[in-house]
Amino acid sequence: MNELTVEWVEKAEGDYVTAERELRARRRPNYDAVCFHAQQAAEKYLKAFLQEHGVAFPKTHSLIELLELCLPLDPSFELQRDLLVQLDRYAVHYRYPGESADKDESRLAFRTIKTVRSFLQKKLGISS
Question: What's the maximum distance between 2 C-alpha atoms anywhere in the chain?
Fold first, then answer.
């Protein structure tokens, strides 16, 4: 794996661990942060995959835009579309006043990133 790919993976793992930690927090868990960091982990794993394959990508938070760049390299990414659509909305959905995630929503977001993370780790040759 090239050096920049490794950095993307490390950043993705940082977001994954943060989401997991917030979900497990006993005192004042931040469910909004669980959802946000789940989206961020997916975004960075997709960027790691593209980086590893030498595909330039724009500065974007759109998981679907990144997915479209991955598909020509590996059509099996299509299997992740519904999960990525679900995570995609967390980039901004709960970051501003007016709406907040609850425990159930954050659990769903975390289960989703676990699935996406496992898929992308396999594609990158990372054993979990």
Answer: 45
Separation CA 62–CA 102 (nearest Å): 23
d(CA 34, CA 17): 10
Residue 120 in any domain: the answer is: no
Per-residue pLDDT reduced to its tens digit, 6-15: 999 999 999 9
Q: Residue 95: which CATH number?
A: 1.20.120
Q: Domain range holding 12?
A: 3-102
SS3 percent helix, strand, coil of the chain, rounded to 5, is 70, 0, 30
Q: Please check whether residue 70 is in contact with residue 50, taking contact to mean a CB–CB distance below 8 angstroms.
A: yes
Question: pTM to 2 decimals?
Answer: 0.96
pLDDT tens string 33-75: 999 999 999 999 999 999 999 999 999 999 999 999 999 999 9
Spatial CA neighbour of 53 closest among 84, 89, 77: 77
Are 109 and 35 within 8 A, CB to CB? yes
Distances (CA, A) of 84 to 25, 64, 65, 128: 25, 7, 10, 20
